[in-house]
Amino acid sequence: MNTPEKHSRRNFLQHSLLGTLGLSIASTAEVTAQPAAQSADPEITQEIDVLVVGGGTAGHIAAIQAARAGAKTLLIERGAQLGGTMTTGGVAYPGLFDAWGKQVIAGIGWELVKESVELDSGSLPDFSKVPQRHFHNQVFINQFLYAILAEEKCEKAGVQIAYYEFPQAVTKTEHGWQVDCIGFGTKRRVLCKQLIDCTGGAEVVGLLGLPRLREDERQPGSFLYMMGKAHEPGRNQIHRLYVHGADSTNSRTVTAANLTGRKSILAELRKKGQRLMHLQPETGFRESYRIQGETLITVNDYRTGKKFDDAICYAFYPIDLHTKNGIKPEPLKPGIIPTVPLRALIPKGSRNIIVAGRSVSSDRLANSGLRVQSSCMGMGQAAGAAAALAVKSNTTPLEVPLKEIHDLLRTHGAIIPGDV
């Protein structure tokens, strides 16, 4: 029993000990976690409508959209938080949401970005002004705040989140999919009607043996850190270390990238004699597998701003290929705004699975512009809408009438190609 006397004695001992040692302690708050149903069971089975694998830039947006549309949605993420590149990767500088003096990407992703900036007392760019350089209209966000706001949005929408888990096997069933996932102390069997692969490297597509695309050479990853001065989240960028050869294919290659990056940062720290003020937990990856979709976005499609018949969102960013020789962004010509077709999110010959994010079906140069956060958010929202509507009509995303997808996206704030 925690009596007032015991509480007072504990405080006295803490203050006495800390005073003796010359230490101070920050204030401590308390909260009680409510365990989820079946949390003590090592093996669970659940039936849902939509399973989203990967909670990164596209995945958490896809899950929120699917749940807001009425689908019972589970989001599985092998890491510890949502946001992917923006949070765990540390590129808390998303863009681009505008093109040529107008906003072209909005919806749930922009809703989250805007709220995180406002809550952090930050500032937003003026999209009515065409910047001299593309990055002038990118948005600084507080990565730590964004991650917890994303969880709040998921909770309000009804999304269930499962961290530290990942699929081991995916099997077709009469009504959709059986997905067997593993986490420490947990085996989860998910029976779902629709799958959304937002893993960045189309890893669920790979588990199914569907074709994927990848070059032998990949763009370097980035390990982000701050040395010598304090990092101010939501106000500045942090230092970047290129990790050449970084490969996100599996746990072994990611481990190698992380160890290489940290070793190099430690060597620089010793060389310069400065304090390490901030370090991201892992490498951010620019490039991995892409799907072979029902259509493929070529660099010519991207450069010319091709308006696909089944376009579901805009994308806007320079062609942005990073190499060992550096980077020379190729800006798009005035007035050009690329689009992303629904068919580029559908693995060729598949049913009941859709992909969103940097693994969109595209050639390497087109992908270097498509892979950025705002475009991935737009793709994620479209994938969530298509999957939820497919559940309602008992069909597959590619067979959902395009007008229904567009109407649902507009209801949740998205901008459809042709609307601006």
Keywords:
2 domains; five-stranded parallel beta sheet; 10 helices; FAD/NAD(P)-binding domain; 20% strand; 420 residues; single chain; four-stranded mixed beta sheet; alpha/beta
Question: How is the topology of this model organized?
Answer:
Layout lengths: L3 H18 L21 E5 L2 E4 L5 H10 L4 E5 L20 E2 L2 E2 L3 H13 L23 H15 L2 E4 L1 E9 L2 E8 L2 E7 L1 E4 L5 H5 L4 E2 L7 E7 L11 E5 L7 H22 L3 E4 L10 E2 L7 H6 L6 E4 L7 E2 L2 E2 L11 E3 L11 E3 L8 H7 L2 H20 L9 H10 L9
Parallel strand pairs: 1-9, 2-3, 2-10, 3-6, 10-20
Antiparallel strand pairs: 4-5, 7-8, 8-9, 11-15, 12-13, 12-14, 16-19, 17-18
Helix pairs in contact: 2-4, 2-9, 3-4, 3-9, 9-10
Structural account:
The protein has about 425 residues and is α/β, with parallel strands linked by helices. It has two domains: about 45-215 and about 290-410, FAD/NAD(P)-binding domain, CATH 3.50.50.60; about 220-280, no CATH class. The protein is about 30% helix and about 20% strand. The protein is built from ten helices and 20 strands. The strands form seven sheets. Strands 6-3-2-10-20 form a five-stranded parallel β-sheet. A four-stranded mixed β-sheet has the order 1-9-8-7, with no helix packed on it. A three-stranded antiparallel β-sheet has the order 13-12-14, covered by helices on one side. The radius of gyration is 23 Å and the shape is globular. The model is unreliable at about 10-20 (pLDDT under 50).
Mean pLDDT, all residues: 93
- The CATH architecture category of the largest domain equals 3-Layer(bba) Sandwich
- Tell me the count of domains: 2
Distance between the termini: 65 Å
In angstroms, what is the radius of gyration? 23 Å
Q: At the first level of CATH, what is the class of the largest domain? A: Alpha Beta
Largest sheet: 5 strands, parallel
Form type: globular
**Tally of DSSP helical segments:** 10
Strand percentage: 15-25%
Low-confidence spans = 12-18
Which homologous superfamily in CATH is the superfamily of the largest domain?
FAD/NAD(P)-binding domain
CATH fold label of the largest domain: FAD/NAD(P)-binding domain
Can you count the beta strands? 20
Structural class: alpha/beta
How much helical structure, as a percent, in the residues? 25-40%
Order of helices and strands: HEEHEEEHHEEEEEHEEEHEEHEEEEEHHH
Strand order, largest beta sheet: 6-3-2-10-20
